[in-house]
Amino acid sequence: MNEALPQKVRLRIRSGTIPHKIGVYVCHCGTNIASKVNCAEVARFASGLKDVIIARDYQFMCSDPGQEMIARDIQELGLDRVVVASCSPRLHEKTFQGVCHSAGLNPYLFQMACIREHCSWIIEDSDEATIKAMHLVDAAVNRVSYHRELFAREVPVYPGILVVGAGIAGMQAALDIAEAGQKAYLVEKAPSIGGHMAQFDKTFPTLDCAACISTPKMVAVAQHPNIELLTYSEVAEVTGFVGNFHVKIRRKPRYVNEKLCTGCGVCIEKCPVKVPSEFDEFLGTRKAIYRYSPQSVPLVPVIDRANCRHLTQGKVSVCEQLCPAKAIDFNQEETELTIQVGTIILATGYDTFDPAIMPQYGFERFDDVYTGLQFERLNSPVGPTGGEILMKNGQPPESVAILHCVGSRDQNYHEYCSRTCCMYALKYAHLIREKVGQDVAVYNFYIDLRCFGKGYEEFYHRVQDEGVIFIRGKPAEITNRALCLEEEGKLIVPCEDTLLGEYLRVPVDMIILCTAMEPSRNAIETARIFGISQGQDGFFLEEHPKLGPITTTSDGIFLAGSCQGPKDIPDSVSHASGAAAKALALATQGWVTISPTTAWIDPDICSGCRTCQELCEYSAIDFDEYRRVCLVNETVCKGCGSCAAFCPSDAAQIKHFTEKQIFAEIEGLLAPARLLSA
Amino acid sequence: MAKTAKIVVENQNPLAALQGFLQSLLEDTEITAILVPHHLPGNNAVMPMLVTDPQQLDRAGPLAPVFPVNAAKIVSKLTRTPPGQKMAVVLRPCEIRAFVELTKLNQGSMEEVMIIGLDCLGAYETENYSQFVEANQGDGFEASLRFYQNFIEGRGAEGQNFNVAKACQACEHPSPDNADISIGLIGVDLQNGLPVMANTARGEQYLDKLNLPQTEEPEERKQALAELIKKRIEYRDRMFEETREATSSLEKLATYLSGCVNCYNCRVACPVCYCRECVFLTDIFDHKPWQYLGWAEQKGALKMPTDTLFYHVTRLTHMSLSCVGCGKCSSACPNHIPVMELFRMVAADVQHAFDYEAGRSLSEPPPLSLFQEDEFTEITETLE
């Protein structure tokens, strides 16, 4: 070698002339791969590829003997590159990188070829599958030659944990964290914590009172010294990365001084403005100064800016004049605070489907068509009717129809099952007959009854035995056009009973629509702020449907409760405790490793156009005014590749996904592969 | 801002009048340097010259029908970091539009430059210009005036057996709309002097200092411009049609570009190819002997040099949104590949798709610097 050449050039020559020692391992995955792909033939093909010195196939590469085989080859044959052709890298890339690491090979000198999900599972023809596997292996071998050693970094984790949303899931997570001795910041956008559960009256299947079990939790949250409660607040911006998030929180003005207010309620009593109550699902009214719910935590009222006549029209402020504690403060303004936390738990919950979108069900057109949540409020002792189940005319119903799956299991709206409706429908059926009278006819129109939880099936039998009528069929519409005398003045539910094969018309007084649980209305914005993804159904996407239902693809951000998908209370609580455990694990460990597969900008090539800076979703790129080049802050970079995809000169590259590596991979894919037998 | 002044023309010599105008800018305002095309002594080459001495402007040639380099790149060099002095630059409309693109890409700044634009009658390819000068007694100044006379007397831009460059014939931007000061040449009666229009506050501020007589923009100029643009658009659309036909398949495109020798002259000449190092010069395209041999073996025969089609398609991807159609790429090609025709055609489609026009406005961000979720829904929706 010519020593006079510059170092960079010499290295380049060397890397091209000294052959690598690549080992290729083709996994059968039992019959998952081997039933379609001729694994032995793929291994034989691999052994003929450039720089491959050993190629083997084996039943289960991820098993202990499989892993040992790779480790032994690394040590005995001196492999400097390893390719495993098996399942998706999402499943076992870490496993095999671990094998390399333990055998003394840098884990980034490993490449995985997915010949299960991308090959054996989706191809009918065995020869075709085998050839595709060869192409995929060729691509991986060609790519791995250009891999470089990379080293993960360890960064400290701030001990604080942010919990967003204070429904039952958020409260549970915050309490678990606080009980473990760590600090939790609980942010809730509503004026009170409690979430949807606070709206419920009884909970299935045990029929215990929701308030009796949730109010103590609300109080515990408010009183716990390790929980900092931030109600009427929203997260505006999140920067940073796992272990070190900076969260900007906007606190809306309550116009009531929380320190002075004694919660006496005189202001609410005297306020002259009445508006429909959100908490009562618009069945009742509240004042312009109001408590979100009767059990609000904190108990401090809040002034609704849009409806307060003092704030909108400058009228006399009755509340201000009558408040004995002088707590009303119209000078309050929105404030902002920034906190530093190590991890984040999202518990932003769900919203319910608006049935007005389905005009055939007459919601808002007929007086006595209610949503499930409205019925919860009708049933509540502190609701608009004081807990009496009454129609709009003030009379109790003589017959009620409960329609399941409104907006759920419906290809026009949501394909998924909302998982809670069957059970609350049964609960309503029971409560109606218990409160109004056992002679009330209650009809459940269902597609299937899904009573899968602990004690659920038993509850179903109990309600069946009580005499509730079950009709399998999806009603076509709700109408008030009577065809006979007994339908006069009633709401009629036309439906096919698919078990009897009969067409029915059921006249009733009241209808309850079991509306679907939907992603929260703010889900898109929330996903953007926290840099996480949504699934096709709009709920936040977990890292893995089975093995990672709590983690997200953003390290350090966890999901709790129904923001991840429809859940009932016990499932939400378990999910939340899981999320708390995940967050606590990082907080107590105190450090976390950060992937080295981040972007890097070559300052010798960068033209300083700053386009990458504009494209970076994570604000990870800074501009060096002196050198006029862009620089990547590797602690903030998530390695998404927006910068590299744009950069025309390729100054911006993602480590482990360089153009050289990707081009090599494409070339390998396009190279010819033939069956030996053919 | 719609202020219009007049440069008085004596002896039917607009060139001398323009030189005088530039001289007074150097002498009477805080402008300390002017970048302007200049007739080099010795031969008749015309090159941009950065002039600080007013006397040196006697060789300034803003009317010379040639521009061997798109000066946008030069202005970029002069303004990439704050120059600390006020400058004026005399540019063709395509150069101005390229500089607008470069400024948006942070490769230059308009902060301290005053842009002077002249109506553009088009320019010859460099070798044709030399012939044209030869035919005019070897005098570049005479040749420039002759070219202008020909043009305003309706004989068009034709010389003997050649015309202005194809890019110029297809250019629908003869008027320097986004210059600070634009000087009218087309449809102008020299008896009435040359109209000087301030298009920006800065332009007006400088114009005020020169105490030129006031005038109105002549109606004839607007008409003449409209006619010229109409003619050029017809030419352009015919060119697009022919080019579309000639490149309608991958095979045809490969044939179209088959003369490419990877000299990369086109991207060196391109004013909006702003990379410090072209990706085609990096190790990504530094292939190993065994790779060449492998490809040859796969295909049975491998055309060398490789990556030529890839290079042009990549360059189209990188810069067609900023292409201003100046045609310097074609001028630079040693093998006479009609690069401009292809790039202009693709650029027109791409810019139309993003409702963007290169060089139109400094306030329009380059489309690829924005992430818009609702963009091209007709494509993204079919993916779902």
Provide a quick synopsis of the model.
The complex is a heterodimer of chains A (678) and B (384). With 678 residues, chain A is α/β, with parallel strands linked by helices.
Explain how this protein is built.
The complex is a heterodimer of chains A (about 675) and B (about 375). Chain A has about 675 residues and is an alpha/beta fold. Chain A has five domains: about 5-150, Rossmann fold (3-Layer(aba) Sandwich); about 155-250 and about 335-350 and about 535-545 and about 555-595, FAD/NAD(P)-binding domain (3-Layer(bba) Sandwich), CATH 3.50.50.60; about 255-335, Alpha-Beta Plaits (2-Layer Sandwich); about 350-520, FAD/NAD(P)-binding domain; about 600-655, Alpha-Beta Plaits (2-Layer Sandwich). Chain A is about 30% helix and about 20% strand. In chain A, α7 runs parallel beside α16 (about 570-590). The longest helix of chain A is centred in the last third of the chain and has 21 residues, at about 570-590. The relative contact order of chain A is 0.11. Chain B contains 15 helices and seven strands. Chain B is globular. With about 375 residues, chain B is of the alpha/beta class. Chain B has a seven-stranded mixed beta sheet, with helices on both faces. The interface between A and B is medium-sized, with 27 and 28 residues.
Q: Most extensive chain contact?
A: A-B, 27 and 28 residues
Q: How many H/I helical runs of chain A?
A: 19
- The CATH superfamily of the largest domain in chain A is FAD/NAD(P)-binding domain
Query: In sequence order, what are the helices and strands of chain B, one letter per element?
Result: EHEEHEHEHHHEEHHHHHHHHH
| Backbone structural class of chain B | alpha/beta
Sheet with the most strands: spatial strand order of chain B: 1-7-6-5-4-2-3
CATH class type of the largest domain in chain A: Alpha Beta
Give the count of structural domains of chain A. 5
